[in-house]
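Is magnesium ion placement plausible here? Inputs below.
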Amino acid sequence: MTDREDKLINVKGIYFAYKRRDVLEDITFSIGAGDFLAIIGPNGSGKSTLIKLILGLLTPSRGEITLFGTPLHHFHQWHLVGYVPQKATHIDPIFPISVAEVVGLGLLAAKRPPRWIKNNDRDIIKEALTDVGMWGLAHRRIGDLSGGQQQRVFIARAIVNQPRILFLDEPTTGIDATAQEDFYNLLDRLNRAGITIVLVTHDIGVVNKYVNKVACLNKRMVFHGTHEEFCSSPRAQALIPGEDHLILHRH
Ligand SMILES: Nc1ncnc2c1ncn2[C@@H]1O[C@H](COP(=O)(O)OP(=O)(O)OP(=O)(O)O)[C@@H](O)[C@H]1O
Ligand SMILES: [Mg+2]
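Reply from A.M.:
I modeled the complex. Tokens:
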């Protein structure tokens, strides 16, 4: 097996522009099985766009992406890939759907037609909600939950198909410090259970004790390497505003 085949995701020479404004230029990197990768960079640096390109939601103008060794346009095993988008919590508060149903929708999305929930699926939904500590609220309406609780439900929806890789785009925005800690511990547990994690975040100071790889984006890939390399890279550090929050040693 070559090094490239060993990687879950390979991104090679990607360019992307919205209308005529270039957003990403010459992006090349890969994500290995078992990695916990943090993607950081200023607002508007192209982080969400890069995730959407990898998920096939946008198409690059140049370059190629492979998932599990398969070129993106031939890839169909989307049940292997979980995604929590940046604005997942912006839901209609009166939408009459329960927590368990939100997770069930994740399960249905990966099924072939005819799609319906079977008895055995209820156990799978229960397991996912138990994993994120939300089984107790399974029958509550999603709109009645707090932002942090909703975020946990969206994680449950993303892991219900037992993905091999999970993408999370700034999942802790608006979540208090205690809930954030619980949340990162949950991601750490999932990672130790073998799920590759890709986390877009502005909190590198908080997540640096969990991640093993760091990618710094600013239209181009400014830095990509191990956490240890990141800690000693002035180029990477220069991207992070402020100085006093750079507690870059592991705890
Ligand atoms: N749908 C769109 N149409 C046009 N331009 C867009 C669109 N989405 C994003 N952009 C622009 O592309 C650039 C990159 O946006 P992107 O959302 O990828 O940044 P980001 O790194 O995720 O930022 P943030 O940290 O604020 O989430 C920004 O300049 C943004 O204004
Ligand atoms: Mg974004």
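Short version: Strands lie at 7-18, 21-32, 36-40, 62-67, 70-71, 81-84, 165-169, 196-200, 213-218, 220-226.
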